[in-house]
Amino acid sequence: MKDFRSDLSDELSALTPPPLGDLVAEATRKGRRARRVRSVGQVAGSALALTAVAVLFGGQLHGTGGKGELAGAAAGGTPAATATASPSPKAATATASPSPTASPSGDQVHVSGAAVLATVLDALPAGITTSDYAANNFAEAHGQYGTESPVAQVNVHTAKGLGMMRIFVGTANPTGKCTADTGCRLDKYGQEVRVDHVSDNCIQNTLVSVRHADGTDVTVQMASCLAWDGKANKPGVVPLTEEQAADLAGNPAFHDMMTPAQGAAAAARFPSLPQIY
Amino acid sequence: MRREEEFTAFAEAGAVRLRQIAYLMCRDWHLAQDLTQTTLTKMYLAWPRITRRDLDPFGYARKVLLNSLLDHKRLRSSGEVAVDRIPDRIPDTVHESVSADIRLTLVDALALLSPRDRAIVLLRYWEDHSIEATAEMVGVSISVVKTQSLRALNTLRAHLGEDRAELFA
Q1: Beta-carbon neighbour count of residue A242 at 10 Å?
Q2: Which of A134, A204, A218, B59 could form a disulfide with A249 if both were Cys (CB 3.0 to 4.6 A apart)?
Q3: Is the pLDDT confidence value at A79 over 70?
Q4: Which of A181, A10, A33, A156 is nearest to A92 (CA)?
C-alpha cells in the first residue's frame, strides 16, 4: 500500500490547511487549568467530606438523627458525603428509586460529570455493584465541536462478569424527535425511548436514549467490552438489560443543568474522578 | 517542569500528524484543529500516567483522537445519511479552483466511507498498523477489520476507477 500512502500524502501536501497557530500552547494552557480545577476540587472535596464526617459523628453522639439525614440524601439523589471515586466495588445502597425532582432553579451551569455519576449511582436499582468510576465535564472531553455532553463511566459487576457503561447527559435536539416508525416508544413518564445497536463496535454495543420532557437527553451507552486501559479494550458483558437502561436513562433526576451547589456537592462526593479516554 | 517540556516536545512534533488524521476523518480543518487541541489537552492531563507506564504517547493520542471523532460522528449521525455521491462543493480540496478536473481524489473517495470504515482504512493503510492493532484502536473484532477493510477498498476502487486500481494492489 505504498502507493496509497504516497498518493494520499501528495494530496494532503497540495491542500492549504489553516496555520496551526498556538494550538500546542493553548492545549497546554487548558490542561494546566483543568489540572488546577481538579486539584481545587480534590481539596474542597476532602474538606467537605471531613466536615460531613465530623457533623455525622457529632450527630450520632448527640442523637440528633444524623443517620436519617444521610439515608435521605442517598435515596434522594443528593451526593452522600462519604462516597469517593474508588476502584473497589460498591453495592448500590439506595433504598428506592429517586423520585421525580423539579428542575434546578436559580443560577445554573452545565451539569458536571461528577453530578451525572452521582445521579447514576443513586438511580441504579439497589443491589447492583459498581466500581471504576470516571467522568468528563461539559465540553471537556471533546471540544467545542464535539460531544459537548458531560459523561460518567461506571463498571457494573453482573453475574456474568464485569460490564462497562457510559451515561451522557445533554440537550435533546429539538428537531430530532423520533416516532414509532423509527423504533421509538414511550416510557412510563411519557418520555421518548430509543434503542440502537452497533453490533461491531464494542464500546457502543447498545445505546438507549431517553428524551426528557424538559429537553434533557440521557443516553446510556452499554459496552460489550471494558474501557481502553492504554493497551486494549478487554472483553466485558453488556452491563444492564435494555429495560434497566431505559429506566435509568428515563429517571427524572437527570437534568442537563445544575446549580453550583449541586456541582460542589458532587465534586465533594467524587473528589478524584479520573477522566474518560 | 521536565515533564512539561517533554509534553511540549511531543505535542509540537505530533500536532501536524494528529491534525492530518483528524482532517482525513472529518474533512473539516476547523473541526480537525479543535479535536487535535482537545486531544492534546487530554494528553497533557494524562502525561504523568503515560510516562509512568511507558506507553507510546502517539499511539495513545491517536486512540484519544479517534474516540473523540467516532463519538462526535455518532452523536451527529442521527440525522446524517451516508450517500454514494460527492457533495456539490467539496471545501478545502486541491480541486476547489480546478473546475475542469473532475477526477475523484483519494481524500474525496475516503469521505464516501462510513466514519468507522474510514478509520479502519486510515489506520491500516495510512498509518500502517496491523489488523490486531487496528481492531484494538477502533474497538471492533479482528474479523470486522478484515471484512470492512476489504469492503472499504472495494468501495474506493469502484469510485476511483480502473486507472487507479494499482493503489490497492
Answers
A1: 16
A2: A218
A3: no
A4: A156
Grid cell in block for residue A203: 464500546
CA distances in angstroms from A244 to A125, A129, A239, listed in the order given: 9, 14, 10
Among A4, A23, A142, beta carbon nearest to B15? A23
A259 touches chain B (CB under 8 A): no
Joined together, the cell numbers standing for residue B132 give 490486531
Q: Is the Cβ of A126 closer than 8 Å to some Cβ of chain B? A: no
DSSP of A195-229? EEE-TT-STTSEEEEEE-TTSEEEEEEE-SEEEE-
| pLDDT computed for residue B87 by the predictor | 39
Residues of B in contact with A232 (CB under 8 A): 136
pLDDT, one tens digit per residue, over B101-121 is: 445 788 888 988 988 899 999
- What mean pLDDT value characterizes chain A? 75
Q: Which amino acid is at A120?
A: V
Query: Considering only A191-205, A224-238, A242-256, B51-65, which range has the smallest mean pLDDT?
Result: A191-205
Residues with Cβ < 8 Å from A192, sequence gap 6 or more?
A: A177, A178, A184, A185, A186, A210, A211
* CA contacts within 13 A on the Cβ side of A15: 24
* pLDDT at residue number A12: 83
Which amino acid appears at position B81 of this protein?
V
Residue A143 backbone zone (phi > 0: left; psi -120 to 50: alpha; other: beta): left
Q: CA-to-CA distance for A221 and A160, rounded, in angstroms? A: 18
Measured CA to CA, the distance from residue B157 to residue B160 in angstroms comes to: 5
The shortest C-alpha distance from B113 to chain A (Å) reads 15
- Label residue A198 by pLDDT band (50, 70, 90): confident
How far is A45 from A192, CA to CA, in rounded Å?
A: 36
